[in-house]
Write a structure and sequence with these properties.
The protein is an alpha+beta fold. The chain has a single domain, classed as Rieske Iron-sulfur Protein (3-layer Sandwich), CATH 2.102.10. It is 11% helix and 22% strand. The protein has three helices and eleven strands. The strands form four sheets. The protein has a three-stranded antiparallel sheet, with no helix packed on it. The protein is globular and about 45 Å long. It starts with a strand and ends in a 16-residue tail after the last strand. The structure holds FE2/S2 (inorganic) cluster (FES).
Length: 209
């Protein structure tokens, strides 16, 4: 069953097809421990219009992923394990844009982890091909994804593959890495999504959004 995302601020923008089952599947591995998180939103209307949201991540365990919504789109916050972080550099040769040269992230997250802090990965959960929501697949070498799979995000619509830094692999129909939106840490366990600490995010102009 498919649903679609459409920005209320720009109804003519391209429609994002979102597979409802993939949302469930994507978060399903951790859903029992951390369900869809209710963030401290100013109001539904303000959030839909683009207001930043504040998310408490104090309960997030290593390896867990939560999904919040910002600008009507799903956003993932993944707390990566040391092992998951250690794998990322070994995947560079398999990525289309291993150094994150395309403007798909804040300048401050243009690093090997595509994040402000290595441990926490914050990213828009929309495939850059045609807008489905990929599945979170942290398992190593599962039968359906093959022996080379080191954990990542798999888009069920047309098979695009991303690593746990949202970098798309060669051979995927998706052209670009997952977009990393403006965010910052208000403190160790509180993330502000939708703006930088200075309030500016003029350097964020992703190709897909
Ligand atoms: S929408 Fe993800 S691969 Fe096509």
């Amino acid at each position: 069953m498919a649903a679609s995302f459409e920005s209320p601020a720009d109804p003519n923008r391209r429609r994002f097809l979102v597979t409802a089952t993939s949302v469930i599947g994507g978060a399903g591995i951790v859903a029992a421990a951390v369900p869809f998180v209710a963030s401290m939103e100013p109001s539904a209307r303000a959030v839909a219009a683009g207001a930043p949201i504040t998310v408490d991540i104090s309960k997030l365990e290593p390896g867990q992923l939560i999904t919040v919504k910002w600008r009507s789109r799903p956003v993932w916050i993944l707390r990566r394990t040391k092992k998951q972080l250690a794998i990322l550099p070994s995947l560079d040769a398999r990525c289309k844009d291993p150094k994150s040269l395309q403007p798909q992230q804040l300048a401050a997250t243009q690093n090997e982890y595509r994040s402000l802090l290595p441990e926490y990965f914050v990213v828009v959960a929309i495939c850059t091909h045609l807008g489905c929501v990929p599945n979170f697949r942290p398992d190593i070498a599962p039968p359906d994804l093959g022996p080379d799979w080191k954990g990542g995000f798999f888009c069920p619509c047309h098979g695009s593959r991303y690593d746990l830094a949202g970098r798309v692999f060669n051979g995927s129909p998706a052209p670009l890495n997952l977009p990393v939106m403006p965010y910052y840490f208000m403190d160790k366990t509180t993330v502000r999504i939708g703006e930088t600490k200075s309030g500016a995010h003029s350097n964020w102009r992703p190709e897909t959004w």
